[in-house]
Amino acid sequence: MKAVVMAGGKGTRLRPLTCDLPKPMMPIMNRPMMEHILNLLKKHDITDICATLQYRPDVIKYHFEDGSRFGMNIKYYIEEIPLGTAGSVKNAQDFLDETFIVISGDVLTDIDLTEAIEFHKNKGALATLVLTKQDIPLEYGVVVTDYEGRIVRFLEKPDWSEVFSDTVNTGIYILEPEVLEYFDKETVFDFSKDLFPLLLKKGKPLFGFISNGYWCDIGNPDTYIKAHWDILENKVKGNFLSQSDEGIHVGRGTKIPLNCKINPPVVIGSNCNIEQGVLLDSYTIIGNNVTVKRNASIKRSIINDNCYIGPSSELRGALICKNTIIKSGSSVFEGAVIGENTILENRVVIRPGVKIWPQKIIDAETVVTSNVIWGNRSPKSLFGSSGIKGIVSDEITPEFVIRLGGAYASMLSDNNVKHAKKIGISCEKKPLNDMLKSSLVAGLLSGGAEVIDMGDCPLPVFRWAIKYLNLTGAIKMNLDGDITNIEFFDEKGINIDKDLRRKLQASVQRSDFQFCKATDIKSVKTLKEDLFELYFDNKLQSFEFKSPTIQNKLTICYQAPSKTIEQLCEKFFQKLSIEAYPLAENMNPDITFSINGSGDSFQVITKTGQIIEENTLLALLSLIKMKRNPDSVIVVPYKAPGIFEKLSEIHGGKVYRASSSLPKLLSKQYQMEAYDDCFTNIINLLDYLNMTGSSLESLIKEIPEYFFKEAKIKCPWKFKGQVIRHFMQHQEKDTKIEALEGVKLFHKNGSVLVIPDADEPFCLLSIEGKTENDIENLFRFYNDKIEKMIESNDQLPVK
Questions:
Q1: Could you tell me the pTM of the whole model?
Q2: What is the pLDDT of residues 322-331, one digit of tens each?
Q3: Cβ-proximal residues to 136 (8 Å cutoff; 6+ apart), any chain
Q4: Which of 183, 177, 174 is nearest to 206 (CA)?
C-alpha cells in the first residue's frame, strides 16, 4: 500500500514556533513530527510514500531526501497555490494507482493503521475515515456512524448546539484511487468539506473506523507541550525515547556532573553540556547540542537544539526554539515562547504567556510583558530620545496605551502631588489618534486623574498652556503615517526627566500601579478657551512693534506643514499687525519662516533662497540676545559647535551646554532660554531687525566662520557600550577626553563627540575642525575605527 503524507502546513497557530519552520518539522522529543509519522507508516509496512508540500518545501526535502535513510521511498509534490486537502492529493494522482492512506505529517499518533486498513477492505469502502473520541469536539469535524460503521452525518467544527457526537475526524483516510475522479485537477477541493459530503450525497460506501489509539492534533503551544508530556507518561506507543536510567533519558556525548539535580521524567539530547549546580525538574525536554550553565534552574520546559542557557537563569514552563541564547540571570515564565535565533541579554524577565518572534534581541534588564513581533529588538527602555515611539496597533496597542495612561496618573500620585491631578492631552484629529486618545483617557481616568482635552495644540502653545492651566502633567501624541510618538510633560511644560521616565517605564512593564476606586473616577473636560489667542497675548506683552516700519522694510512669508500650524501662523502675524503670506511659486520674499510639524522649531530662508542651517540659526538668535543684554544666559545643546563661546567672548553673555537627554535647549536651571519656543524667537528676530534697521544677511555675516559636521554611523546595539569604552580607555596621543555626554575627544585640529543613538542602531558623531579638510579627516578616522570593531565582531583594536 502507498501513503500520502500531508506536509504543507504553515502552523500559523503555533507561531512563533513555526515562523521559520514548516509545522511537520517541529521537533517532538528532538525529532521532527513528520519523522514520527514515517516511523508509524514503516511499522505497518507502508514504505512507498509521497509528501505534498507547500510552505518551506526545501526544509522538508533537505531533511528526508529520497527517504532511503529512513528505509522508505519518498516522492514530493509541491503545491504552488493552496488547493485544499483533496486538491493537493490530486496532484499526486499519477503515483496513487492502488488503495492508499492519507495522513497528516504534523500530528502525534500511534493509531493501528493495519487494523484500519483491514476494516476498509472488509467493508468494501470507497473511503474510510479514521475517527477518535474527543471530550470537547468543537475544533474538529464531528462524525456519526451507524452500527455497521457507515457514516450517516458529519459537521465541520460545530458549536455546542450542533454537537451530535464525540467522534471526530483525525485526518487519516484510507481511499481508493477512484475518489480522485470526482473533481478536477487544479481545483480547490477539501476532503472533509467537499469530497466526503459529495460521496455521502451520492450514497457511496463511506465508512468510519473508530480507533482507541492515541491521537493529538498539535495546533498550538499548549498541545505541543501536552504531546511531550503524554510521551513521558507512556500514553503514546512508539520509539520516542533513548534508554533511560529511572526516567532520565540522556543522548550520546552528553556530560552531566554529579552535583546536578535531575528529577525524572527528563529528556536530554545528544552532545549537551550541563554544568555544575543545574536543576532539571520533571517534564523538562532538552534538545541536542544545548549548553546549560552553572546554577541554572529549568522546570517543565522544552528547549530545542543548539541553545545556550546562561548561569543562574530560570525557565518555568517555557518553550525555547533552536539557536536561542539566554544570558546570565534571565527568567522565562509559564507559557512564554522564545522564537529561534533570539538573544536575551543579562537579567531579562519574560512574563507568562509572552511570545517573542524569531531573531530578536532583548536588551539587558528588560521586563517584557507583551509580545515582541516587529523590529529586531525589544529595548530595555520604552523611551527614545523624545518619547515612546512605535507602530500603531502593532507596537503601540490600545491595551498598552491604557496601561501607559494608568501608570502615568498613578506615578503623579506618588510624586508628592498635593493637589488634585489634572492631566492635559493633545493630538491631531485623526482616526488612529482618536483610537489611542480614547485608550489613553481611559487609563488616565482609571488612575484617578481629571483629564483636560486640549485639542490639536501645537507644541509651543501646549507647553505654555500646561503652566497657564495649572496642570499636574500633560501628554502629547504626534502621528506620522502609522507611527505615533507619545511625549510626557511635567507641570512646567518640560518633558519629564530621566528619573521619571525610568519610574514610568518600570511601572508599565511590571504593571505594578493601582487603579483608583470607582467612586474616585473623575471627568473629562474639553477646553472652551482659545489657547492660541491667550498664548499670543501673553507673548506679545513685552514687545512694542512698529509694524508699518517692518512692513516697509521686509516682505515676509511662511511655510506651514499642516492646517493647524498654518492657522497658528496666520493668528501670530495678525497679532503683530504684519502682513505675511503663505509661500507660493513666483514669490521672492526677504525672509521666509518654515515651521516644522510640531510648531516648536523653524528654519529661516533668505531672499536668495539660502536655508540657514540649525546651528547658524541658533547662533543668530544667541547673537541677538547677547547684543541686547551682555549679561544674558544662552543655553545650547552639549553637541553644538564652539561658535557660541566665540560669540560670548565678543559680545558678552554666559553659555551653558545642556544635555541632549533634556528637551531641546532646556535645562532645569534655565528653562526655555533659547530655541524651544519658535514664535518667541521669530518675535525676537523681527523686533531686532526692526529696531536696528539691520538686514538678515548683514547679521549672518557677524557670525564667525566655523566648520562642523554631524554624521550617523551604523553600530549594532550590543557594540555601543564597547565603542564608548574603547575611546575612554584607549586615548590617542595628544588627545584630551571629556565625558559629560557620550565621549568627546579633543584633537589639535578639532574635536569629535561620539554619542550612542537612543532610538536606532547608530552612533552619532558631532565633528568640529579648523577647516573642512580637518572635519573630513576626523570623520574618516572615527568611521573606520567603529567599522573595524563591527567587522571583527569582537572589540576595537588597541593601538
A1: 0.58
A2: 999 999 999 9
A3: none
A4: 174
